[in-house]
Amino acid sequence: QQHQQQQQQQQHDAEVGAAVHGGHGVVLVLAARGRSMLQPGEYERQMRAELGSVLQELPETWPLLWCPGPAEVGLLPASQSRRPSWAMPRGRSSESALLGWLRYLLVVRPSTPKS
Nearest to residue 62, comparing CAs of 83, 86, 31? Predict the structure, then answer.
């Protein structure tokens, strides 16, 4: 049982590592509910904590897509200030608009050359 769990964990780690280090991705920030339900100070605290933990694990080449905008780049950790960041226009948060943005970011948009 323990050996099987270790094998499953190793397989999972390998799959995640391959996806993160050799793949393409986007970080989707769904901020609307937090903006509407939390006090501004609490929203900022929670977003900073969440973005900090997520962004330290994902490649800097993966852009942020704020849905809906605006892009709140001031909430990013200082080490992540150069990460590409876009905002979906307000009023266009339908499922088809989101899928269009994701298709553009993952398929159409040329990759950034690595330095």
Answer: 83
Nearest-angstrom CA–CA distance, 2 and 30: 37
- With CA atoms as reference, report the closest residue to 47 among 29, 63, 65, 25: 29
d(CA 43, CA 54): 16
How far is Cα 73 from Cα 86, in angstroms, rounded to an integer?
9
- Model confidence pLDDT, tens digit, residues 16-57: 554 555 567 778 888 888 888 999 999 999 999 999 888 888
For tokens 């330290």, the residue is 56
Q: Partners of 114 in the beta sheet?
A: none
* Dist. CA 55–CA 107, nearest whole Å: 21
Q: Is 65 helix (H, G, I), strand (E, B) or coil?
A: strand
Torsions phi, psi of 74, nearest 5? -65, -15
